[in-house]
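Hi again,

Forgot to attach this to my earlier email, sorry! This is the prediction with zinc ion bound. I've pasted everything inline since the attachment limit keeps bouncing my files.
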Amino acid sequence: MALWEGTLKKMRVRHETPVAYELVDAFDKERHPLALNDLLGKRIRLKASGSIRCIHCGQPTRKSFGEGSCYDCFRRLPQNDICILKPELCHFHKEDDPCRDPEWGRNHCFQPHFLYVALSSGAKVGITRQVNIPTRWMDQGAHAAIPVARVADRFTVGKLEHHLAQSFSDRTQWQRMLKNLRPEIDLEAQVETVIADFPEEYREAILDERPLYTFDYPSLRWPEKVKSINLEKVSVAEGELIALKGQYLLLDSGVVNIRKHSGFQAALEVL
Ligand SMILES: [Zn+2]
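C-alpha coordinates for the complex follow:
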Protein backbone atom coordinates (compact mmCIF):
# COMPACT_ATOMS: atom_id res chain seq x y z
CA MET A 1 0.00 0.00 0.00
CA ALA A 2 1.36 3.38 -0.98
CA LEU A 3 1.81 5.86 1.84
CA TRP A 4 1.48 8.70 -0.63
CA GLU A 5 0.31 8.93 -4.18
CA GLY A 6 0.03 11.98 -6.39
CA THR A 7 1.74 14.36 -8.78
CA LEU A 8 5.19 15.45 -7.64
CA LYS A 9 6.20 19.06 -7.21
CA LYS A 10 8.75 20.98 -5.17
CA MET A 11 8.73 19.66 -1.60
CA ARG A 12 7.32 21.97 1.04
CA VAL A 13 9.91 23.10 3.58
CA ARG A 14 9.54 24.70 6.98
CA HIS A 15 12.32 26.48 8.81
CA GLU A 16 12.64 24.26 11.88
CA THR A 17 15.64 22.48 13.44
CA PRO A 18 16.16 20.43 11.42
CA VAL A 19 14.31 21.70 8.31
CA ALA A 20 10.91 19.95 8.00
CA TYR A 21 10.08 18.41 4.61
CA GLU A 22 6.69 17.45 3.20
CA LEU A 23 5.80 15.75 -0.04
CA VAL A 24 2.84 17.62 -1.52
CA ASP A 25 0.59 17.06 -4.51
CA ALA A 26 1.06 19.50 -7.39
CA PHE A 27 -2.67 19.98 -7.86
CA ASP A 28 -3.96 19.75 -4.30
CA LYS A 29 -1.43 20.90 -1.73
CA GLU A 30 -3.76 20.24 1.21
CA ARG A 31 -4.91 16.78 0.18
CA HIS A 32 -2.38 14.60 1.97
CA PRO A 33 1.03 16.10 2.61
CA LEU A 34 3.48 13.44 3.74
CA ALA A 35 5.97 14.33 6.51
CA LEU A 36 9.25 12.99 5.15
CA ASN A 37 11.48 13.56 8.18
CA ASP A 38 9.63 10.68 9.90
CA LEU A 39 10.85 8.29 7.21
CA LEU A 40 14.58 8.74 7.89
CA GLY A 41 16.22 5.35 8.36
CA LYS A 42 13.39 3.52 6.61
CA ARG A 43 13.62 1.73 3.29
CA ILE A 44 11.35 3.47 0.84
CA ARG A 45 10.35 3.04 -2.77
CA LEU A 46 9.38 5.98 -4.96
CA LYS A 47 7.82 4.70 -8.14
CA ALA A 48 6.88 6.84 -11.14
CA SER A 49 3.86 5.57 -13.08
CA GLY A 50 5.23 6.85 -16.37
CA SER A 51 2.63 9.55 -16.88
CA ILE A 52 3.43 13.22 -16.54
CA ARG A 53 0.99 16.11 -16.21
CA CYS A 54 1.85 19.73 -16.80
CA ILE A 55 1.79 21.43 -13.37
CA HIS A 56 0.43 24.62 -14.98
CA CYS A 57 -2.43 23.47 -17.23
CA GLY A 58 -2.88 19.90 -15.95
CA GLN A 59 -2.69 18.37 -19.43
CA PRO A 60 -0.82 15.11 -19.94
CA THR A 61 2.56 15.60 -21.58
CA ARG A 62 5.02 13.06 -22.90
CA LYS A 63 7.98 15.01 -21.58
CA SER A 64 8.48 17.65 -18.90
CA PHE A 65 10.03 20.94 -20.01
CA GLY A 66 11.68 23.18 -17.46
CA GLU A 67 10.30 21.91 -14.17
CA GLY A 68 6.97 20.29 -14.96
CA SER A 69 5.68 22.24 -17.97
CA CYS A 70 4.15 20.90 -21.17
CA TYR A 71 5.77 22.30 -24.31
CA ASP A 72 3.02 24.85 -24.82
CA CYS A 73 3.27 26.22 -21.26
CA PHE A 74 7.05 26.20 -21.54
CA ARG A 75 6.85 28.44 -24.59
CA ARG A 76 3.96 30.59 -23.45
CA LEU A 77 4.20 31.28 -19.70
CA PRO A 78 6.23 34.19 -18.34
CA GLN A 79 7.69 32.07 -15.52
CA ASN A 80 9.39 29.92 -18.17
CA ASP A 81 10.96 32.87 -19.98
CA ILE A 82 14.74 33.28 -20.21
CA CYS A 83 14.60 36.45 -18.07
CA ILE A 84 13.53 34.38 -15.06
CA LEU A 85 16.87 32.56 -15.20
CA LYS A 86 18.70 35.72 -16.27
CA PRO A 87 16.86 38.70 -14.79
CA GLU A 88 19.25 41.14 -16.46
CA LEU A 89 17.56 40.13 -19.75
CA CYS A 90 14.15 41.49 -18.66
CA HIS A 91 12.38 42.77 -21.78
CA PHE A 92 9.23 44.14 -20.16
CA HIS A 93 9.71 47.57 -21.73
CA LYS A 94 10.70 46.37 -25.21
CA GLU A 95 8.00 47.20 -27.74
CA ASP A 96 9.08 44.57 -30.25
CA ASP A 97 9.48 41.81 -27.62
CA PRO A 98 7.18 42.60 -24.69
CA CYS A 99 6.66 40.57 -21.51
CA ARG A 100 4.79 37.31 -22.13
CA ASP A 101 2.24 38.42 -19.51
CA PRO A 102 2.62 42.01 -18.28
CA GLU A 103 0.26 41.52 -15.34
CA TRP A 104 2.27 38.55 -14.10
CA GLY A 105 5.41 40.61 -14.65
CA ARG A 106 4.07 43.46 -12.56
CA ASN A 107 3.15 41.10 -9.73
CA HIS A 108 6.35 39.07 -9.72
CA CYS A 109 9.14 41.14 -11.19
CA PHE A 110 8.15 44.70 -10.31
CA GLN A 111 8.22 43.86 -6.61
CA PRO A 112 11.00 44.38 -4.08
CA HIS A 113 13.80 41.82 -4.39
CA PHE A 114 16.69 41.02 -2.08
CA LEU A 115 20.27 40.36 -2.95
CA TYR A 116 21.71 37.78 -0.55
CA VAL A 117 24.87 35.88 0.20
CA ALA A 118 24.39 32.21 1.07
CA LEU A 119 26.63 29.33 2.04
CA SER A 120 25.97 25.95 0.45
CA SER A 121 28.77 24.22 -1.48
CA GLY A 122 30.62 27.52 -1.14
CA ALA A 123 29.61 31.15 -0.75
CA LYS A 124 27.37 32.50 -3.50
CA VAL A 125 25.36 35.58 -4.30
CA GLY A 126 21.74 35.34 -5.38
CA ILE A 127 18.46 37.19 -5.56
CA THR A 128 14.99 36.44 -4.26
CA ARG A 129 11.63 38.02 -3.64
CA GLN A 130 10.71 38.74 -0.05
CA VAL A 131 7.94 36.09 -0.05
CA ASN A 132 10.54 33.41 -0.81
CA ILE A 133 12.61 34.19 2.28
CA PRO A 134 13.68 31.83 3.82
CA THR A 135 12.33 28.91 1.71
CA ARG A 136 14.58 29.80 -1.21
CA TRP A 137 17.69 29.00 0.83
CA MET A 138 16.36 25.67 2.07
CA ASP A 139 15.47 24.74 -1.53
CA GLN A 140 19.13 25.34 -2.39
CA GLY A 141 20.44 23.38 0.58
CA ALA A 142 22.18 26.42 2.09
CA HIS A 143 23.58 26.23 5.63
CA ALA A 144 23.41 29.95 6.16
CA ALA A 145 22.25 33.07 4.37
CA ILE A 146 22.29 36.82 4.90
CA PRO A 147 20.08 39.28 2.98
CA VAL A 148 22.32 42.18 2.00
CA ALA A 149 20.32 44.69 -0.05
CA ARG A 150 16.72 45.46 -0.97
CA VAL A 151 16.10 46.66 -4.52
CA ALA A 152 12.85 47.91 -6.08
CA ASP A 153 12.46 45.34 -8.86
CA ARG A 154 13.87 42.19 -10.42
CA PHE A 155 15.56 43.82 -13.40
CA THR A 156 17.52 46.25 -11.19
CA VAL A 157 18.60 43.57 -8.69
CA GLY A 158 19.41 41.30 -11.65
CA LYS A 159 21.88 43.86 -12.99
CA LEU A 160 23.49 44.08 -9.55
CA GLU A 161 23.80 40.29 -9.31
CA HIS A 162 25.20 40.14 -12.84
CA HIS A 163 27.87 42.65 -11.87
CA LEU A 164 28.75 40.81 -8.64
CA ALA A 165 28.85 37.42 -10.41
CA GLN A 166 32.03 38.56 -12.18
CA SER A 167 33.82 38.31 -8.82
CA PHE A 168 31.62 35.95 -6.77
CA SER A 169 30.01 32.64 -7.59
CA ASP A 170 26.26 32.61 -8.24
CA ARG A 171 26.07 28.80 -8.45
CA THR A 172 25.70 25.86 -6.12
CA GLN A 173 27.75 22.74 -6.84
CA TRP A 174 24.99 20.29 -6.09
CA GLN A 175 27.18 17.23 -5.54
CA ARG A 176 29.32 19.03 -2.95
CA MET A 177 26.16 20.37 -1.36
CA LEU A 178 24.72 16.85 -1.05
CA LYS A 179 27.92 15.46 0.46
CA ASN A 180 27.40 18.13 3.10
CA LEU A 181 30.94 19.44 2.69
CA ARG A 182 30.71 22.65 4.65
CA PRO A 183 33.29 25.19 3.59
CA GLU A 184 35.11 27.14 6.29
CA ILE A 185 33.90 30.56 5.29
CA ASP A 186 33.01 33.47 7.55
CA LEU A 187 29.74 34.52 5.94
CA GLU A 188 29.59 37.90 7.63
CA ALA A 189 33.10 38.73 6.40
CA GLN A 190 32.07 37.53 2.94
CA VAL A 191 29.13 39.95 3.01
CA GLU A 192 31.53 42.83 3.69
CA THR A 193 33.63 41.79 0.69
CA VAL A 194 30.53 41.64 -1.53
CA ILE A 195 29.36 45.05 -0.32
CA ALA A 196 32.78 46.52 -1.15
CA ASP A 197 32.12 45.50 -4.76
CA PHE A 198 28.71 47.23 -4.97
CA PRO A 199 28.49 49.89 -7.68
CA GLU A 200 27.89 53.37 -6.29
CA GLU A 201 24.26 53.56 -7.42
CA TYR A 202 23.34 50.50 -5.33
CA ARG A 203 24.85 51.65 -2.05
CA GLU A 204 21.66 53.08 -0.65
CA ALA A 205 19.92 49.73 -1.16
CA ILE A 206 22.18 48.07 1.44
CA LEU A 207 20.23 46.94 4.49
CA ASP A 208 21.11 48.45 7.88
CA GLU A 209 20.16 45.21 9.64
CA ARG A 210 21.42 42.05 8.00
CA PRO A 211 20.12 39.02 9.91
CA LEU A 212 21.95 35.69 9.70
CA TYR A 213 19.70 32.72 8.90
CA THR A 214 21.03 29.23 9.60
CA PHE A 215 19.73 25.84 8.48
CA ASP A 216 20.22 22.24 9.59
CA TYR A 217 19.00 19.36 7.49
CA PRO A 218 17.58 16.05 8.65
CA SER A 219 20.19 13.32 8.20
CA LEU A 220 21.55 10.04 9.52
CA ARG A 221 24.68 10.33 7.39
CA TRP A 222 25.85 11.88 4.12
CA PRO A 223 26.86 10.10 0.92
CA GLU A 224 30.53 9.91 -0.08
CA LYS A 225 29.56 9.53 -3.70
CA VAL A 226 26.52 11.17 -5.23
CA LYS A 227 24.63 9.22 -7.84
CA SER A 228 21.63 10.90 -9.38
CA ILE A 229 18.47 8.88 -10.00
CA ASN A 230 16.36 10.00 -12.96
CA LEU A 231 12.80 8.65 -12.74
CA GLU A 232 12.31 9.19 -16.45
CA LYS A 233 14.94 6.53 -17.07
CA VAL A 234 14.54 4.03 -14.25
CA SER A 235 11.00 4.72 -12.90
CA VAL A 236 11.85 3.37 -9.41
CA ALA A 237 14.08 4.81 -6.70
CA GLU A 238 14.51 2.45 -3.79
CA GLY A 239 16.70 2.46 -0.70
CA GLU A 240 17.15 3.67 2.85
CA LEU A 241 16.31 7.34 3.29
CA ILE A 242 19.49 8.76 4.85
CA ALA A 243 18.95 12.51 4.51
CA LEU A 244 16.91 15.35 3.04
CA LYS A 245 18.60 18.47 1.73
CA GLY A 246 17.76 21.14 -0.82
CA GLN A 247 15.07 19.56 -2.98
CA TYR A 248 16.68 16.12 -2.78
CA LEU A 249 15.76 12.81 -1.19
CA LEU A 250 19.06 11.13 -0.33
CA LEU A 251 18.79 7.35 -0.45
CA ASP A 252 21.66 4.95 0.22
CA SER A 253 21.29 3.95 -3.46
CA GLY A 254 21.33 7.47 -4.95
CA VAL A 255 19.68 10.89 -4.80
CA VAL A 256 16.39 12.07 -6.31
CA ASN A 257 15.77 15.72 -7.15
CA ILE A 258 12.05 15.94 -6.42
CA ARG A 259 11.62 19.42 -7.89
CA LYS A 260 13.11 18.27 -11.19
CA HIS A 261 10.40 15.60 -11.37
CA SER A 262 7.54 18.07 -11.00
CA GLY A 263 4.49 16.76 -12.86
CA PHE A 264 5.47 13.09 -12.56
CA GLN A 265 2.75 10.81 -11.20
CA ALA A 266 4.33 8.82 -8.41
CA ALA A 267 3.70 6.65 -5.38
CA LEU A 268 5.81 6.37 -2.27
CA GLU A 269 5.78 3.29 -0.06
CA VAL A 270 7.71 2.11 2.98
CA LEU A 271 9.15 -1.37 2.45
ZN1 LIG B 1 0.74 23.05 -19.78
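The CA atoms of residues 168 and 180 lie 21 Å apart. The pocket of zinc ion is lined by residues 54, 56-57, 59, 69-70, 72-73 (CB under 6 Å).

That should be everything now.

G.
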